[in-house]
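Run log, item B.
One chain of 184 residues. Sequence copied directly from the ordering sheet:
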Amino acid sequence: MKIYKTEFPGLLLIEPKVFSDQRGYFFESYNKSKFDDEGLKLNFVQDNISKSVYGTIRGLHFQINPFAQGKLCQVIKGEVLDVVVDLRKGSPTYGKHYSVILSEENHLQLWVPEGFAHGFSVLSEEAVFHYKCTNFYNRDSERVIRFNDPDLKINWQIDNPIVSEKDMQGLLLSDIPTYFTYQG
């Protein structure tokens, strides 16, 4: 496994070692001892899987304390543009977004620590998205930033997106109170 630091403190791109042959491929998507050895001492308590069709945008979601979540994200089938927004006041990347293509072809994973809003757009006919969470889902702690917030200027690479009513009702980043502080 290779771990790449991004310009966003704590946000990591992970490339698992993939073994391929005429049958297909195999890789460990998570191995606690290997993650621990890399300094990623994570405690996952919930796995989520979503299936979405082309043009879907899900997000930008996050949960506030005491239910804030870190997420290890990957695509099982298809291709998505995975997007996060740094919500940690005092972070050098506060209010900025990072995006990366995650696909069944590249097998990349994105580690998203607490303090980030997360979303993705589906670029393939359909996508199956999997993420491991460090805390349980809690409806009362969930918050949504509008995917088309003009200050974020996110290019979702989708025309005429399919978006849930909840996500359409999200707030602008400028209206979100300080929930997270960067610890440096």
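Observations after the first pass:
- The radius of gyration is 16 Å.
- The longest strand covers residues 46-53.
Flagged for discussion on Thursday.
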